[in-house]
Give the backbone structure.
Amino acid sequence: MKQVWIVSGLVAAALGVSALIVAGGQLFQKPDPAAQQVASVLPWQIEVLPNGASRVMGLTLGPAGQASTLADARQRWGQDMEVAIIAAPGEAGMLEAFVDPASAGFITGKVVLTADLPADVIKGMRDRALKAEFMESTTRKYKLTPEDLADAMKAPLIAMSFIPQANLDEATVLARFGQPAERVRSNGHLEHFLYPAHGLDLSLDTEGKELLQYVAPAQFDRLVKPLKAAPAASAASAGT
């Protein structure tokens, strides 16, 4: 897809849903003592593991055998989690799960999880899908059969996106997540705060909703390369 690696049709659809209008500073303030008990699952509490994986919101992102699975995510967020294959024309697609609302400690929002499956397995699931429906533009969502869904729940998680209900600003981002290793501006209103050591790309949008994209730190290039390639491609196109 043309979007940043992890941003799929499900994320785009989620952004279309009306969000609770709450100032970011209000929800991202220091929690009361009761909320301290769930501090380990707050969006800025990222545990980097020795094997190059990371633990975010109670789930581990990384390669098979080290990562949490979609079944673990369902146990974390409940049976309402939606699982489907999301694919644009000409692409095999990705196995994704969508949770709305999703709690991350005292923060709420929407979560999109990406799980790892071989392309041939993805294709088989698409071919057997109970139905396919359009999402954004030509992107399609394929509903899995019960048998394929059971197999999909065993797939390891490789990425997570979180769209907070709260509207963030630069001061809040720096206070909670610290100084980024790099900042990349996509346009006049969208800027990416990159934290490669933690596997996090936090996009701050002054005209829309913020998006936090997590991968295992060892896989950060898979997230950031498309981001940095986009301006170069645009410049090359303008020069022709």
The chain has one domain: 9-234. Residues 9-234 form one domain.
